[in-house]
Structures are given as structure tokens and as C-alpha cells.
Amino acid sequence: MKTPLAIAIAAAFTASSAFAEEPKAGGTIDTIIQPEPPGLVLGMIQNAPTRTVAGNIYEGLLRYTTDLEPQPQLAESWEVSDDGRTWTFHLREDVTWHDGEPFTAEDVVFSADVFHRELNPSARAVLQHVEAIEATDDHTVVFTLEKPFGPFLISFEAGTFTMVPKHIYEGTEFRDNEANNHPIGTGPFKFDNWDRGTVIQLVKNEDYYEEDLPYLDGINWHIIPDGASRAVAYENGTVDVLPYGTVENFDIPRLTELDNTCVTEQGHEYFSPFAMLWMNNREGPTADKRFRQAVMYAMDREFARDVLWNGLGQVPLGAFGSNARFQNDDLEPYDHDPDRARELLDEMGYDGEEVRLLPLPYGETWTRWAEAVQQNLKEVGINVRTEATDVGGWNQRLGDWDYDLAFTYLYQYGDPALGISRTYLSSNIEKGSPWNNVEGYENERVDELFDQAATAFPDEEREALYHEVQEILQEDVPVGWLLELGFPTIYRCDVKNLVTSGVGVNDGFKDAWLDR
Amino acid sequence: MNFFARFAQNRGALVGLIILLAIILMAILAPLLFPESPWRMVQRPFLPPLETEGFPLGTDTMGRNVAAGLMHGAWVSLLIGLVSTTVALAIGVPLGAIAGYYGGLVDDALMRFTEFFQTIPNFALAIVLVAIMQPSITSIVLAIAIVSWPPVARLVRAEFMSLRHREYVEAARLVGQTNATIILRQILPNTLSPIIVLASLMVATAILLESALSFLGLGDPNVMSWGYMIGAARTVIRQAWWLSFFPGVAILLTVLALNLVGEGLDDALNPKLARERS
Amino acid sequence: MLYARLIVSRLFKAVIVLFMIIIFNFFLIQMAPGDPAAILAGEAGATDAEFLRQLTERFGLDQPLHVQLWRYVSGVAMLDFGFSYRQQVPVLDLILARLPATLLLTGTAFVLSLVLGIVAGSLAAARVKKPSGSLIMALALVFYATPLFWVALMAVVLFSVYLDWLPAYGMYTVGAGLEGFAFALDVGKHLILPATTLALFFMAIYTRMTRASMLEAAQQDFVKTARAKGLKNSVIQRRHILRNALLPIITLAGLQAGQMVGGAILTETVFAWPGIGRLMFEALQQRDYNLLLGIFFFSAALVIVFNIITDLVYRLADPRIKEAS
């Protein structure tokens, strides 16, 4: 079942490309950032609100279409050697930092080799495959890899591989640098003012290197801590754009019915947030494969999507989302089948032992979802007790493996080697983090396949390996696959060209213009 | 005039008592009228009240029966109110009694301790306590008790101070009764009426506190309380007013009833004051 | 002279209480599950052991607890409240930036509730057996029994969404670039809803208290004397009864100050008022220890200042209390 909203979005997709209007320059956009970001120096801080605001201040070497095809940004062109190990990037020559200094290959080497190696875990995941980074001239950078690395070219998005100014950070204590309060990037907007608790203001970069861009004079990011108040801010016209996560899902249908209101699910292709249910593979009933399969059959995932997520998003087939590369379509799906779940529980001799369920403390929708899953599981005879935690408690409980079932969602980062394998590799089992192989799944064959696939070259070889691994995972159900989340951006229809890339929610305002 | 007649003279108190009894009745009847779990998703979500048979108050965001939630919630809210008040009394009464009875240094130390708790904003402390213990019925009850005992201690202390030099206390001391006996047998019974009045108000405040905690997302996820219902409905307050309206009214009526009953008790237990007042 | 000595002794006591609060809260917060490093790492969506180690070391969380406590307490003694882990700015800056908003909100609500409460209470006392008096008391009781956040939500729906009279949230209109009187007017408009909702509950308390103590004062001998002298009823009400009835209300008001700061957490959340109540809740969720401790320190200090002020007012209002205590 698709709700009217989902249909409306589908229609908007097809319609949007049909019109090519002449952009108008001018105007300031008011939008919301939730929660207030801890800081704006991308590369030093990688959380979602920082990415969303600072993605307009900073840039990466490349940009990606909504199909995750690489596009030129700070790099004009690039090439790879035949063995897949040497990547050469040619930079634009007309780029300056917001303080007027020229942007050069030295900045790239400093950002990647020094700044990110020290501060940025998501960049480190890629950099560990990089042997050397050299500037061969002022506008050419060469990356040499130890072995080919499948997702290498997908990693140059602004939030992951941010370009930071060498002349400001070199030789300083990065985190204590005064400039952190006034971020300097190369992007279409410059930092202007941050009135904590109230607003973050960016202004147009008059010297931006792409002709005519940006069209907007500035962006005001309002900070409003209460969900209902955020909805009111849109309704009474104070803000024009509601980025994902700013209003509760239950408010979305009502808001989208307002006049002059459009909505898009695009701009998350790079992240492809994937909701999962951790199941503790180590002990208790969840250690039994049949129990985990029973959970999959017991859950009504379509209900969750239609009622809790307004029909947005997609029920996944298995471990690889539909946006993921190398998805295997031939897997046996886990449909909602309570009888099958009861059979499996009987077969394993489940005795009604209590299992503890940890909801994700990220707001009402997640709480409601946990309530629905608890009810689904109770109906097939599983004795569930929900234990509420806040973010700190949730981190600690998962890091200590002190749970039976727990909600989470993870980003896919455009490639299985970055976003998917981390959940299943036994080398990724380590206490203290809620983001690794928390379920404690160990399978030698799976480890082998994931490792080979990450460095196989070219893509056809990777595909065969990934297809095999998906079959094993489908049978073992190390975790529950809940939903590929659809995060809608709600905006006034006269805000044009808002989402133009696969990370569009974070770098979208560059192309946006107001038809007023 | 007997106790009830004095109580009934206060019309408001009578109304309060009737409301309160009705709410208690709701709590008792809940499992009989709605034997199914109030968490069950039984109908289409967002059914407005009075439109579908069997769902007089409509359904919530996930198609759960609001009427069932309200009835089961009565039990939870009353329980939280009563238990946390009992715990608060268990802390406040002994502290206040000891401080008031012994006076001097003991009193000083205990009162500084009490003041200390009154200096930290109540609600802030409650939030921190629930966050530390993680939300559950137990942690909520404890947190409410911990922030609400100081007024009890102050009240009991004041009563003890005024009573400790009364003749009958001196007499008890002369016949050699121990301090513990004097506190428990002689003075405490005479302080009961103001304590009862205060307790009835504390139950009301506890219900309000629980709802405020739930509103901030610090409720127990396994029990359906009124506070939970409002907290869960606040994001949809615009499209489904009834979801927060009914539990809101339920809280209002309960707190109102408890206050009216408290006033009635006050009148009934302190006949002299009541006459002056009216 | 007397007041000076009194203030000094009260301040001395206050310092001790504040010191105790710091230590108490320090250990309290440590008991909360999870730590700021893990939360910040979690927000980043990706993390490795190296990242966690860097943060823990940077925050000084790798040190033994007593070292952390000593560092903190000796810092506070020098009015250094440390850095906010999450925001990476000095705690003092964050709090001082937010404090005026909270002072404005709670101060307005305090005055509003006290004035309206006393007026309503004395009206109710003067009309003790009339329906209008009962109506006032019934209203007060309803305000008292209604959850604060519920009133706030309803007020937003009614006055901002349907009637569009008042702004729904925030402290000033962003981007309007107002200055001087226009700015003050703008802030005032934003202040109406949060201050009124916060004041309602306390107003109800003061109304009931005023009425009760006025009725009690009316029974006193000096009132009878005044009546016997043939003074006008309104004069007696105002000069004799109200004046005497005020004392317990002032005491109560002082005690309520802490409650009001607590209530501000809810009000500031619903109305996006950029005060320290909201900051506190966020800091707690983030396990931003330094920030949370700093806010506790300031809000406790606020309560103490309120208490001292009411104490002084009490003494001014009733010259009979000299150094009785």
C-alpha cells in the first residue's frame, strides 16, 4: 500500500525535470536546523546537523548525482591507472578560500593526509587504504593506494573528505584553533553569525568560482527545539524549508497538504539511512537463528512504513538496501507471517524467556515504532519488555552488549565496503561502540567474502562476491532489516532547485533560487 | 458534628470526592471493560471520538483504543501519585520529626540538608534523576519522592516544635517514656491531620510531575499513563486534538479532585479554622 | 548596618550551599550511563577507537574521578567553569549568553504571578460569600490543576496558529534587524505567551494563599479595632488586612523561586525560548558534564538570590521582625 503522500512524491520526481526555468537571483532563505550543531568545522565534526549547515560552507573534490555518479567540484577531472591503484585529480585553478587565499593542491594534501588522518574517523576508513598523497604541481594531486579499493571514488563528498585551509590550520592545535568559530571554506556561502540557541546565518560568497552561483543572498538556520513549534514556524511562514528530521513524521501529511508546499525524498542517496534491529547473537533466545527468523516474520514492516513513516521508504529485502550497489534480487523475502514465526518458535522450543527491547531515543516515531514491534512480537508469543534509555544510556547499553533487541539506523555511504560490511565483519567486534558489529555475528565465509569484495577490481568481480554473501546473511539473519528510511524535505514550491545531488540535503542551497 | 458531616459541609470537597471515586472506579473497572492490552493496535489510526462503535474516544496514532488507554492510565497515574507520596512521606516525616523534636544542632544540620534540596530546582533534579536511573516506574516514583519530601519535613518539623513542650509530652517524659515512644505515640498522632492534608495535595502534584516527565520523553515505555498519552500525542496535537485532550482533562480532574478533597479534609480535621474561614 | 550584616551572613551560607551542590551534582552526573565522548562519536555516525580515545583524553575523562573533581572545584573557585564538550566554547560564555533570557522570562512570570495572584486573591477575599469570589477561586484551582506544558501547547495553537496574534516561539524576530524600542517591543511580544503560561500556575498558588491569609488576618483584633473606629471597609482591606496578609505570601514566593526555574525548562522547550532551562535539558541529554554542572550552579545561585531578596522584602514589610531569628 502506498499512501497519497508517497504517490505525490513520485509524481513530483517525474515532473520536476520537465521544467527548465530561468533562475532568479536574490532573496534569503529561512530554514531550520535540528538539533543545534556542536560546531561548524566540517571534518572536525561529522554529525548530521553540522553536515547540513557546513555543507554549504565547505566543499569536497567531487559532488555526486542522485544516482551517485561522481561530478566535478573542486576537482575538474580525474583519472585512474589500469591497476586501479593510482588516482590523479586535476583541481580548478580559480578557487579561493573565503579569506581570499588561493586553494591549491597543498590544501588537499594537508586536508587528507594530516587533518583527516588525525580527526576524522569516516575519512580514516578510506585513508587506511591510501599509501601516499602527493601534490605533483599546484593543481594536481595523486593518491596511491595499497590495493584497489572499490569505494574510493565515492568518498570525496564534502562531509567525508572536507577540504580545509592549510594556511589556517597547519601547525596549530586543530580543535583549539580560533578560526573554528569562524569557519573558512571554499563553498558558495560564507559563515556570518551564530546566535546560539536562536539562529545560524550564512551569506552569499560573492567571489564564488562557479558563474552566477549561488543565487541566494543568504541562509538563516533557525534553531527551535520543539517539534510542534517547528511545524508552526513553517505554517506561519517564518521558514520556507523543513529539512529531514525537523518535524515529527505524524506532522508531515498535514504540512504537505498546505498551499504552495512541495516535498522530496531525494538528497539522501549517498547516506541511504537503513533502520535495523540489533539482535544479540551471543546469548539468550536471540542467539538462535530460528528465533531471529521468527522475529523477521513476526514484524509487520509494511504497517510501520505506512503508519509511522507515512508510506515513505522501502521495506528491504535483506542486508543490502535497494540503493546499495550490488544488491542481490533473488533472495527469499521475509514477509509478515505470524504463523511461520510461531512455527519457528515452537521448533526451537522457545520457553517464554523475557527479551529486552531498546528503542532508539531519537524522537516520537522511533518510540512508537518500538511499541508496534513489541506488540507484533507479543502476538506471536515472544515475551518482550521495553527498556527506555536516553542517548547516553543507549550508547552505553549497546557498547556493553547489554541488550537482546535494539533499534538503530546506519548510513550506507554509497558502497557496501563502507556502509554495510562493517555490521557483519567479525574483525569489527569490539566493546565500547554502538556502531560496529554490535550483534556479535561471526562467520568466516562472510568475513572472507566481504574482504575480497572490498579490494576486487573491477566491479563485475565484486558483484559475484557480494551476491554470495547476501545469501548467507539472508539465512542467518544476524540483525533484523526494518526499513530503508525515506527522509522527506518539505519546502515551498517556489524554492527551486533545492535538491540537486546525492547528498542534496547538505549541499543543496548552492543551486537553489527563489521564484518570487 | 462527626467527621464526614464536617467534610460534606464543604460542597467543593464533596464534588471532589465524587470525581475521585469515579476515577478510582475507572481504574478498577479497566481490566474488566477493556481486558485487552491498551497497547494493542486494534483499529485504523486517528479515528475521531464518537464515530466508531467501541471507540468512544477514538484511536491514537497507531490505532490503539484511547478509551482503553485512559482507563488503564487511571490506575497507573493514581499508583504513581500514591506510591511516590508514600515514599516522600517516609523520607520527610522522620527527618522533620527528628529535627523538630531534638532541635539544636540536629535541627540545624537536617534543615540545611532540606534547604539544600530546595535550592536545586525541583523539576531539574527530577529530570536528572530519571535520566540517571533511566526511565521506569521505579525511577520515576523515586525521583518524584526525592524532590517532594522537603515541604513534608518542614511541616512536620514545625508541628513538632510547637508540640514538644506541651504538657502531655512533658508528662510522658516524666513517666520515663523513651524519645522514640514519645515521638511515635504522643506527638506524631497529633500532627497527622496536616500531614494528611498535605499528602492529598502531594498526590496531585506527583501526577502533574509524572505527566511533565513523560512530556519530555522520560516516561516508562511499558505502562500506559496519562502523561505518556499526552507526551505521545503532543506531536499530533494539531490533527488529533482528542489524543491529548482527554488525558489532559483526566489529569486536570484528578488533580482538581485531590485538591478539593484536601481542602475538605482540612476543614474536617481542623474544625476551628474551617468555621473562621467560611 | 543590620541589613549589611544579614546579607553577608546569608551570602556566606550561600557559598557553602553552592559548594555542596557542586560536589553533589558532580557525583550525580557521573552516575548517568554513557559519557560525552561516546555520544559525540555516535552523533558523527562513524567512529573508531582512536576517535573515542582522543575525545576522552581531551575532556580529561581518562583521569581518576577525584582528580576530575579537584580540577573542577578549583576551576569554579576561580570562576572557570570549563569548556562545553559539545559546543566547544567556555561554559561561562554559554550560560551568560542564555541567562538574561531566563531572567527575563522567570522575572516577568514571577512579578506577573505575584501581582495578579495578590489582586485576584484579595478580590476573592472581599467577595468571600459571593459567586464572583467563588468563580475566582474555581479558576485558580483549574489553573493550578492544569499541566503547564498542556497550557503552553494550547496557547500556541490558539493564539499563534488560529488567531495569529502572537509569535509562537523564539525571543525575537530573526532577520528583522530591529533596534532600540522596536526591538524591545518585539521581544515583549515574544515574551507574552511563555511568561503568561509560566505565571498561571504560580498565580493560582498566590491567589489561594492571599485569600486564605487575608481571611485569617480579618479575624485579628486590630481589624476589629479599625472597624470599631469606623474606618471605611476598603481602607481596612487595603491598609490593615492586605498588609498583614502579604508576609506569608512573600515567604512562599521565595520558596517558589526554585520551582519557577524548574518550570522554565518546560516553557522554554515549548516556546523555543533561548534560556538556560532548555540548555540544561540539552546538556543532560548530551552528557555535557561541565555545562550541566555550570547550569546547576547558576540556577541554584538564582534560587538563593531570590530567597535573599524575599527575605529582605519580608523584613522591610514587617519591621517587627528584627533579629528575632
Write a short abstract of this structure:
By secondary structure, chain A is of the alpha+beta class. Helices cover 29% and strands 18% of the residues of chain A. In chain A, helix 8 packs antiparallel against helix 10 and helix 14 runs antiparallel to helix 15 (459-476).
Keywords summarizing the entry:
heterotrimer, A: 516 residues, alpha+beta, five-stranded mixed sheet, four-stranded mixed sheet, 20 strands, disordered N terminus, C: 325 residues, mainly alpha, 12 helices, globular, disordered C terminus, ABC transporter substrate-binding protein (chain A)
What this model shows, in words?
Chain C: The chain crosses the membrane at residues 12-32, 103-126, 138-163, 183-206, 246-271, 291-314. Chain C: This is ABC transporter permease. Chain C: It is found in: Cell membrane. Chain C: Belongs to the binding-protein-dependent transport system permease family. The complex is a heterotrimer of chains A (516), B (278) and C (325). Chain A has helices at 4-16, 48-54, 105-119, 121-127, 166-169, 227-235, 252-256, 289-298, 301-308, 338-348, 364-379, 391-399, 416-419, 444-455, 459-476, 504-507, and strands at 28-32, 62-64, 70-72, 75-80, 86-91, 130-137, 140-145, 189-195, 199-204, 218-222, 241-242, 261-264, 274-279, 355-358, 384-386, 405-410, 479-484, 489-492, 495-496, 513-514. By secondary structure, chain A is of the alpha+beta class. In chain A, α11 (364-379) links the parallel β14 and β15 (384-386). In chain A, α3 crosses α4, α8 (289-298) runs antiparallel to α10 and α14 runs antiparallel to α15. Residues 1-19 of chain A have low confidence and may be disordered. Chain B has one domain: MetI-like (MetI-like fold, Orthogonal Bundle), CATH 1.10.3720. The model of chain B is unreliable at 274-278 (pLDDT under 50). Chain C has 325 residues and is mainly α. In chain C, α2 (36-44) packs across α3. Chain C is globular and about 85 Å long. Residues 321-325 of chain C have low confidence and may be disordered. Classes of the chains: A alpha+beta (516), B mainly alpha (278), C mainly alpha (325). Chains in contact: A-B, A-C, B-C. Chains A and C meet through α4, α6 and α12 of A and α2, α3, α5, α7 and α10 of C.
